[in-house]
Amino acid sequence: MMRVFYDSDAVLHTASDEILYRDIDDCLSDLPYIEGYVIEENGEIAGYSMVAKSYTTEYGGLLIFIEDLYIKEDFRGLGIGSSFFCFIEEKYKGQAVRYKLEVEEENENAISVYEKRGYKKLGYFTMSKEV
């Protein structure tokens, strides 16, 4: 699923298999800042998510960054994404002060789901430097 997600138009930069395997290993390790979820629907694997935890000085507290949220095509439109957001928000209720994610502007279906959950576009852009 990660390969399908990272090779799709939903992601700007693809990731090597080495990085994807490292991501999975990190989720299964005792690292405190990354969590991986397998999403099931009626006993079938419907998708996955990876969530990173950080601190936001803007809001003074725990930041939950939804790094990946992928729902298999056959399971889209069933409310699984919204249910996942409810799960994460309940898990970090009273702890997190901000939830954040990235989305490609062309991914209108995902944007619709996110907006329904109260997410808004930020007024600035993200810069990064890879090493």
Q: What is the CATH domain class?
A: Alpha Beta
First-to-last CA distance? 26 Å
Please bin the fraction of helical residues: 25-40%
> How are strands sequenced across the largest beta sheet?
1-2-3-4
Low-confidence runs: none
Radius of gyration: 15 Å
Tally of discrete structural domains:
1
| Global mean pLDDT | 90
Structural category is: alpha+beta
What is the fold named in CATH at topology level? Aminopeptidase
Largest sheet: 4 strands, mixed
Give the tally of β-strands: 4
Helical run tally:
4
CATH architecture: 3-Layer(aba) Sandwich
Task: Please write the string of helix (H) and strand (E) elements.
Answer: HHEEEHEH
* Percentage of β-strand residues: 25-35%
Write down the overall geometry.
Answer: globular
Assigned CATH superfamily? Gcn5-related N-acetyltransferase (GNAT)
Domain N-acetyltransferase: 1-131
Organism: Catonella massiliensis
Protein name: GNAT family N-acetyltransferase
Keywords: Acyltransferase, Transferase
Describe the structure.
With 131 residues, this protein is α+β, with helices and mostly antiparallel strands. It has a single domain, classed as Aminopeptidase (3-Layer(aba) Sandwich). It contains four helices and four strands. The chain has helices at 2-6, 17-28, 80-91, 108-116, and strands at 34-41, 44-56, 61-71, 96-101. A four-stranded mixed beta sheet has the order 1-2-3-4. The longest helix is centred in the N-terminal third of the chain and has 12 residues, at 17-28.
